[in-house]
Amino acid sequence: MSLDSHIEKVLWTQDQTLDRVTQLASQITRDFKSVPDPPLFVGVATGALFFFADLVRRIQLPLSVDLVRAQSYGSGTLSNGAPSISLDLKLDVKGKHVVLVEDIVDTGCTLSCLIAHLEAKGASSVSICAFLDKPSRRKVPIKLVGDGKFYKGFECPDYFVVGYGMDFAELYRNLPYIGVLKPEHYK
Ligand SMILES: O=P(O)(O)OC[C@H]1O[C@H](OP(=O)(O)OP(=O)(O)O)[C@H](O)[C@@H]1O
Ligand code: HPA
Predict the structure, then answer these.
(1) What residues does the Phosphoribosyltransferase domain cover (predicted)?
(2) Which is the closest atom of ligand 2 to the Cα of 159?
(3) Measured in whole angstroms, how far is the alpha carbon of residue 16 from the centre of its chain?
């Protein structure tokens, strides 16, 4: 059975996804052009990896990259509680302008944990770049650090979405667009 046949509904096609990534990268390039120190872009593994790679390669500025992982979700669509940091950054964030790159903000628990972590490590600002934002599910407000900004690709309706890095039970991350599975595949 093909991958596409598991999808009930496409929310954003591959072209729409990549066009929006290009727009976000242009906006970030403009906003950070006058910042004297190169910013540090931190991708949140695993889900953000595809978006992260596409985004940073479109930003026309010297920048550093690193990864972090905060585990909060179980194997399905339900969170298994407060996230904890299971992979820390390699680089020093003290005094850095950090942009945290996420595939999706849902309850906000993962991002809040990561922002607090970066602030405690002395980042001078923390901005967020999330491809999708699902504000209808928010439990924790997103508090930026310093003059950090919140960039978002699209507002996501209240579906459990897959593709472009986002998984259900560790599958479907390789789907090149974003969609919703047929009900029989959420099992
Ligand atoms: O706003 P929240 O409710 O915290 O949800 C968002 C987080 O959930 C997903 O990660 P997950 O923990 O499933 O790990 P993954 O990136 O490996 O899929 C997603 O990639 C975000 O990091
Ligand atoms: O809708 C979603 N899809 C995949 N992972 C997620 N993590 C939080 N929300 C989602």
Answers:
(1) 16-168
(2) 1
(3) 17
Residues carrying an active site annotation: 106
- Burial of residue 126 (number of CB atoms within 10 Å: 0-12, 13-18, 19+): buried
Q: Which residues of the chain have pLDDT under 70?
A: 72-81
Q: Whose CA is nearest to atom 3 of ligand 2?
A: 161
The pLDDT assigned to 76 comes to 59
**Domain locations in the chain?**
4-27+39-71+82-185
CATH topology of domain 4-27+39-71+82-185: Rossmann fold (3.40.50)
Longest CA pairwise span in the chain (Å): 52
Report the nearest atom of ligand 1 relative to the CA of 108: 1
Cα torsion 65, 80, 77, 132: sign: negative
Two tokens, residue 108: 């906000």
C-alpha pair distances (Å), 153 with each of 26, 34, 103: 12, 23, 9
Quote the Cα angle for 152-88-142, to 5°.
30
- Residue range 15-46, pLDDT digits in tens: 999 999 999 999 999 999 999 999 999 999 99
Centroid of ligand 2 to alpha carbon of 2 (angstroms): 22
129's enclosing H/E stretch is: strand 125-133
Q: Is the peptide bond before 46 cis (omega within 30 degrees of 0)?
A: yes
